[in-house]
Recover the amino acids of this structure.
């Protein structure tokens, strides 16, 4: 009976004793993990606010400009996760992210995998 997967990080899956990747399987004890955030966070004026400001300029002139104060945050990019096995094998995966919460989720999953690697 195979062990259940405790955490998945992109293409990397971890059980209590193994790291399973598309490139092969190796023991989780002694595995080294690195994680790099390659996401970009931007703040822009949404399209709907620009349209309402232009249309409202003909009706309420000055007050329609307040729509241009509306902002929305956007996150784009990926988080790169690499695992290095005790035998010298390694695997790297990129996890796409679309919010700051997704970035923190990937970092949390890697920390959990690190705890599995040291035997906690």
């Amino acid at each position: 009976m195979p062990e259940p997967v405790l955490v998945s990080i992109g293409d990397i899956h971890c059980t209590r004793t193994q790291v399973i990747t598309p490139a092969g399987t190796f023991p989780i004890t002694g595995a080294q993990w690195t994680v790099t955030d390659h996401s970009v966070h931007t703040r822009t004026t949404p399209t709907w606010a620009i349209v309402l400001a232009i249309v409202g300029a003909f009706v309420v002139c000055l007050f329609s400009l307040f729509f241009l104060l509306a902002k929305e945050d956007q996150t784009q990019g990926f988080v790169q996760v690499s695992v290095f096995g005790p035998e010298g094998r390694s695997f790297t995966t990129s996890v796409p992210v679309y919010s700051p919460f997704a970035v923190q989720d990937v970092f949390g999953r890697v920390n959990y995998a690190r705890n599995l690697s040291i035997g906690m």
